[in-house]
Structure formats: C-alpha cells, structure tokens
Amino acid sequence: xxxxxxxxxxxxKDTIDDFxxxxxxxxxxxxxxxxxxxKGYSIILWNQLTELGVPSILMPKEFGGFGFxxxxxxxxxxxxxxxLTASPLFSTVVLGASAIELGGTxxxxxxxxxxxxxxxxxxxxxxxxxxxxxxxxxxxRLKERNxxxxxxxxxxxxxxxxxxDKLVVVVRSSGNPGDTKGLSLVLVDSNAAGLQTNRIQYxxxxxxxxxxxxxVRVKQDxxxxxxxxxxxxxxxxxxxxxIAISAEMLGGCQEVFDRTLQYLRERxxxxxxxxxxxxxxxxxxxxxxxxxxxxxxxxxxxxxxxxNSPDISLQASLAKTLINDCYQHVSNEAIQMHGGMGIxxxxxxxxxxxxxxxxxxxxxxxxYHKNRYAQLMGY
Amino acid sequence: xxxxxxxxxxxxxxxxxxxxxSQRQPIIKDQQIWAGRRRTFYCEDxxxxxxxxxxxxxxxxxxxxxxxxxxMSLEQAKILxxxxxxxGCRPALYDIGLWMFGPAxxxxxxxxxxxxxxPKIVRGEIRWAQGYSEPSAGSDLASLKTRAEDKGNHFIVxxxxxxxxxxxxxDWIFCLVRTDHQAPKQQGISFLLIDMATEGVDARPMELINxxxxxxxxxxxxxxxxxxxxxxxxxxxxxxxxxxxxxERNMMSIMSSIVEKEEGDIIAIAKRYVGLDSNGKLSNNGLxxxxxxxxxxAQGDAxxxxxxxxxxxxxxxxxxxxxxxxxxxxxxxxxxxxxxLAIMGNRGLSWHDQTFSISEKKTVKNWAYNKAHTIAxxxxxxxxxxxxxKALQLPV
Lengths: 379, 396
Hints:
The structure holds two protein chains of two kinds.
Chain A: H1 7-23, H2 26-34, H3 43-52, H4 69-83, H5 89-103, H6 106-117, E1 123-126, E2 141-145, E3 148-159, E4 166-172, E5 183-189, E6 195-201, E7 207-218, E8 223-224, H7 231-266, E9 268-269, E10 272-273, H8 278-307, H9 312-337, H10 349-361, H11 366-377
Parallel strand pairs in A: 1-4
Antiparallel strand pairs in A: 2-3, 3-7, 4-5, 5-8, 6-7, 9-10
Helix pairs in contact in A: 1-4, 4-7, 4-8, 5-6, 5-7, 7-8, 7-9, 7-10, 8-9, 9-10, 9-11
Chain B: H1 4-18, H2 44-56, H3 74-87, H4 96-108, H5 111-122, E1 128-131, E2 147-150, E3 154-165, E4 172-178, E5 189-195, E6 201-206, E7 215-226, E8 230-231, H6 237-258, H7 266-274, H8 285-314, H9 321-344, H10 358-369, H11 380-391
Helix pairs in contact in B: 1-3, 4-5, 4-6, 8-9, 9-10, 9-11
C-alpha cells in the first residue's frame, strides 16, 4: 500500500486542515494554558470535531465509524500537530478505543465504541509507573481475594488522566516486573472508590495525572482480554499510539520548519535577507533532508498499520526515533534562527519547542526505541 | 509482426543457447570486459560470450543497425535486459562510450562522426574516457581552462584534465575545451573528441588514498585535433554536455547495479567482531546504539526511495524529496563505513598486512574510497545549495 494519500484521504486532510487552522489555531492553546482550563481542551471544539466524524476515523464501520484507516488518522494527527490542537483524540481514540477494539468482548465493544464515536466518552491509558516509559516493567498488582479483584499502587504521567471518564489500566496479575506474561488490562471509572487523581500540567499545555489506586475494586466484566494474557494487545495498542504520536510530531515539526523558512525569507540584517547566508541555507537544507527521511518513516509506519504488516513494531520504533530526533533538532534550530525573538513567548516558536520535548517522552524516547529496534533485529 | 511474447521467447532461447554457464555467475570486478584497443579476456567463455553478443549488435541493442547496433525498439531492448537479468547473464561489454557518449553522439553528431565512432563502440574496439574536470575546475566546471586554438583545418589543444577514469587504459576522450576566452564562461566552451594516441596526450595515473589507481590526470601538450572532431557547433559545447547528463544518470544506475555485493550484512559483522552477551545483545552498548542509528537512517532513506517511486507512479509529486537523496545516501554510506571500522577495531586498520583477511582489507579500502561519494557527481555542499534554492526557495 502506498505512502501517497488517495483521493478520499486527501479530501479528509484538506477538510481537517481548513477546519483546524480556522477554529483551533495556536491562540486557543494559549488561552487554555493561561486560564488553566479544567479539561485542558475545548469541549466546544471536541464537539465540532465529533460532528466532523474525527473520533470515528479509525473505528470499524459496524460501530458507527468511517474506517478511514491509519493514513486518514495520520493526516488528522499531522494537522493537529501543525496547529498544536488540544483534544482528547489521542488518549481516547488511538489508545483507549484501540484497547477495547483489539481486546474487548463483543458486549464491551458494543457498549463503549459507539459512545466514543459519538464523542460522549473519553478514556486514558494508565501504563507508566516511573518517569521513563518501560511498559514491560509494570508492577502495579491486580490482586484476587475470595473472587474479588482489586488494584493497589500508583500510575504516573497518565496522559489526559485528569479529565478522562474511564481509565484503561495496565496491571500485573501474575509474574514479576520484566515478564511479558501476567499483564492484564482493566477498565476503571475515573470516579471509582479508592482512586485519587492528581493533575499534572506539562509545559506545552498537555495534561496528565498521577493516579493512586487504593484497593480499587474491579469486576470481571471490567477486564479487557484474557487475565494475564494482555501483553500482545498492549503491544499493539502501544504501536498504534507510537505511530500516531509520530504523525502528530511530524506535523508540528513541519510547521515550525515552515515558519522558520518564512522568517529566513523575510528577516533582514546587514541590508540583506538572512536567508541569503549560506551558513543558514545549508542548515535549513540539512533540516529538510532529515525531515523528509523522517516523513518517509512515519508515512510508511501508518501504511503498515493499514496493511497489518508483520513488522509494525519495527516500523513504529523507526518512525518514533527518527521524528523524535528530527523534531528536537528542528525546534532548536528554529529558536536559534529566529534570534532573540525566538525566546519570547510572543512568538509561537517556543510553543513548538516545548511540545517537541513533551512528545519526545510520550510512549518512549529515542533511547527506548533504539534499544527495542535492536532487540527486534536480534542484536 | 512478431508478438511481444514470441519476441521474448526467442530472446530467451537465444540467450540459453549462447550464454556460457560461466557467464551466468554474478559479475566480479576483475572479470568485467572493458572495451578498447587493449581489451583482454580473462577466459575463453568471456570472449565467446562477448563475440556472440557483438555479432548480434546486442552490446548496443537499441542503436540503429546501420551503425552495427541491434536495431531494437526501446521496449524490445528492455525485454532483452529483463531476460538477461532473469538468466543471470553478465553484461557482455563495459564502456563509458556505450552508456553515455554513444547515445549523445547519435543525437548530436554529424553523419560522418557517427559512421566513424558508433560501430567501434558497438564492437568494443575503442574505450572512451570523459574529460570534464580540471585541477582548478571542479564544482565550478564552467571555469575550465584547457584551450583549443583554431589553426584553420585543426585545433591545437593545451591544458590538463582531472579524474579521467582509467585514462591510461582509454583510447579516445570526449572533452570540454575553451574556444572563446572573451565570452561569458559557459558560452566559450566546445565539445571535442581527441584520440589519446595523438602525440602530446599523456594520461598519468594518480594514486588514491586507498592505494588504487583508477583515475588519471591527463595532460594535453600542443595536441593537434582535426576540426571534424568537433561535436555540435563551436562554443556550444555546454549544451552538448548538459544533454549528456541525462545519459550519465543512466550510467550511474548501470554502474550501481554492477557494484560487488558486500561481505555479509553489518549486523552479522557486528555480532562476529563484537560478540553477544548472555541476553543476546551486542556486548558493546555504544556500538549497539550506533548500529541502530545507522540502520534506522538507512531504512528511512530506503523508504524515501520507495515513496519517490510511489509519487511518480501516482503523479502526486511533492517536489523536494528527490533532491535530498544524493546528499543523504552518500553521507549515510560514510557513516556506515566509519561504523564498520569501529566494529572491527584494530582489524579495520590496514590493507597491507597478511594479518588481515581479504574482506577486512576490502572494507578498509572502501572506507577510504567512499570519501569520494560526497564529492563526486556534485559535492554535498552543492547539493545543499540546490536544496536551499530549489526546494526551500531561500533567496539567492
């Protein structure tokens, strides 16, 4: 399957680009940030996106979805990255709904997926337990006593965990941290008894939460997939997440690069446009090369999800590593090339710099993915 | 009219009947049959195969039969190429004249020039060299100084050409020479053919940093060249050279397909030289990370090549992608060479000593030779200039 968008996907991309640049420009993120908005995203915008069908892009047609596939999702994520759009799309649809779609029973799917497609239910994936992403090391226990399941422990940096209606929690029902066996997925209401949520506001306007589980009771029908056998589902959910966040980063990286090029074409010093300086031209050209290479990896990874290729995990780690390093480099150069104005909050360039750093950590930094790539390649 | 399928079948049968088994093995550099007065064959089979192909005109299958070519349509020539590849037949003849100069001469030469040169190229009798770069004209090729003075019925040529590939083994050279010193740089240049056996031509091999001698510096000292060796009009050589560029790209793709395959892949080499720990990981964490970084960048480039192909196929071309490829792939090759040396440690430090294996020596020689990749065919810096101006539209 091609990395080039087809007619239908191109139409979707144009629609979303138009809509977001009009209705959700970077100003909106500033407003949410400066007012410390409770949710961290605009519920009005989320409703509008729902009307456009955005939460249904991935969802199978039988659950009210459009089945646009991951290349369609990738186009939307890129557009959100360009506009720094705040929305629960990633946590709810890419991570949460995928867990239910891939691991849930028919009745769980029937109960939850249409509600998500209608924009009436938000989810968050509670997975990390330390400040570095290391999913296999999950230690938080799902205990069983007299047929009653309970969770005790703490999940940290749960993306959108402060505002989600329900949490998809990765827990250990057997084995030890590091084992692939013994992982389970459970669905917990965010207002369940024994659950304490502390909101975290990242520097880029994204939100997360540290969540303490104190003997939180779980019923059998809240378990997603097989008890102790959730590793494959978790892997697949994470691969989808890694690839989708890479697409968002690609959009952001392209935007901050384009803005920098525009500045090089306009800004004058010593009586000439600074874009005439070869020292800057070569750095810009090198960034372009790195960006095109990363773009190929991200587009190919999205396409591998649509094809359900056997090498999705490899492609996910490839895409995330290349775009991590690219976004980090390009956002640094963007600041430098904007000179003094680049370090003011008046310009948006700093917003992209901060967004890049937070995104870098989401579902694994480059060291994590290089190590995973090496393992998958067998060295 | 023969059908395409019948044509393909006939070609296949002919190849099966005429290509000796030994000429269906992957090609080795030392066994390539290069054209020229000093042509040699390493074995009888190679000679037989060359002569059979030559007699069919299939060394240049799509050239007109009146000049000794195969007279095939482009589509038929493609079928021959596909069938040869499918059977693993080696190319019967190697020559820059065949790939690059001949097609340009067929397009721009006079009838007399075609009659004189094309049949000899088809028959592999003459080996051609290219005379473009000079000691003080590299990236800035149009500043070339080798001059040809008009002496009535001939030119007198004086000057020096650099990077003449196998110049000491070549017979004729096509050169860019200055014929008008007053005109702006690119408008005073002509395209001239010179027999290297002429008195005053001297091709001296240059030793490269890897010990090889595949390039020459060629000197022209009062060399007398007949007027009818001029291709195109006087002072219009630059446009002939530009036209030749499109054939150079063809040649690059032929050349890259005949490069010898490397000794095993880099992962296997790393495992062998670095070793694995009890968890099956490379014992050196730093090298392990560097290996991932290289493989990922290389894979990204491979995916870019695929994306470019898909863009061309679907007609949705987004401009700059193609311009990034030369810069990225040549620098990545050099990263890989450096990593190979790091992986091999002290075993990657010589091509002289008995201590080192053939593949170790080859790896080190390639490391040194591949420094040329970011220089030849447009330096990396020129590539970045082009990207900045063409793809990014930064002001000049």
